[in-house]
Amino acid sequence: MTLVQLEYLLAVDTHRHFATAAAHCFVTQPTLSMQLQKLEEEMGVQLFDRSRVPVRPTEIGKEVIMQARVVVAEAKKLNEIILNQQQELGGELRIGVIPTLAPYLIPLFVTGFIEKNPHVRVVVQELLTDDIVEKLKQELLDVGLLVTPLEDKSIKELPLFYEAFVAYINPNHPLAKSKAILPSDLDLDDLWVLNEGHCFRSQVLNICNRGGKKAGVESGHLDYKSGSLETLKRIVETQHGVTLLPELSVLDMPDDKRKLVHTFAEPQPLREVSLVVHRSFLKRKLIEALRKEIIASIPASIKARGKEGVVDVK
Length: 314
Known about the structure:
The chain is an alpha/beta fold. The chain folds into three domains: about 5-85, Winged helix-like DNA-binding domain superfamily/Winged helix DNA-binding domain (Arc Repressor Mutant, subunit A, Orthogonal Bundle), CATH 1.10.10; about 90-160 and about 270-305, Periplasmic binding protein-like II (D-Maltodextrin-Binding Protein, domain 2), CATH 3.40.190; about 165-265, Periplasmic binding protein-like II (D-Maltodextrin-Binding Protein, domain 2, 3-Layer(aba) Sandwich), CATH 3.40.190. About 40% of the residues lie in helices and about 20% in strands. It is built from eleven helices and eleven strands. It has helices at about 5-15, 20-25, 30-45, 60-85, 100-115, 130-135, 200-210, 230-240, 255-260, 285-295, 300-305, and strands at about 50, 55, 90-95, 120-125, 145-150, 155-170, 180, 190, 240-245, 260-265, 270-280. Strands 3, 4, 5, 6, 7, 8, 9, 10 and 11 form a nine-stranded mixed β-sheet that branches. Helix 1 packs across helix 2 and helix 5 (about 100-115) crosses helix 10. It starts with a helix and ends in an 11-residue tail after the last helix.
């Protein structure tokens, strides 16, 4: 049994296709298949069911793969010990970030981080929370930027800041005259929310539940399912109703749009934004540099805020 064989094993489990796994490992498919066959012969078990498309691990294969991830991760830590002694950070940092954070948070810190770490290649993917967690477990991402808590024991959460929710209200809506909004003021029939699958949707509906409202959203004659906060903002501006937005998304709004932003009365509903990593994560020095850069880039008013008022993720 070799580390190379275990890496091939993990690649097939990740991609569920021998040719794709071989390309990912920069070897030919016959080479990868031969090495996995040797590993199965040595162990005396079949690790994959090759009769299915895509290929799937057998029951014993699932257990072997789980342990193989631990072994490979621990082996990589040997290289990391050497890299951590170097003064200059380098390599690739793969970041997964949820769509309700990406367009507002990434521009705040990414330029400064790259300038301070010119030998680091930053790769960013916009993904939903569940996809980020799964890719962290498969080592396809190094770190995630999302909303916590997740209540997943395999994931380590490093809270960064607490971001307020604000209401974005059409100027003809009755709430447009209110200086501070209460959850009980929100009417679900007037509320525009994201599609199912976005944690931001769940948080918005939980804010409404604080005011005694029940989740179940309709918006008159127009039923628009969106995965974009920017689209919801445009609907509010041009049609009717209300949507809730994260605080970072309204920081640089022009004055004419800023008039549509209304804050909540204290205690404001908040979301906890965190860096998340796998429990056995690598690139610790690089991720710590990322954490410090993000915190330094956040406006002081947000940075100083405590966690009172955090809304449930689920």
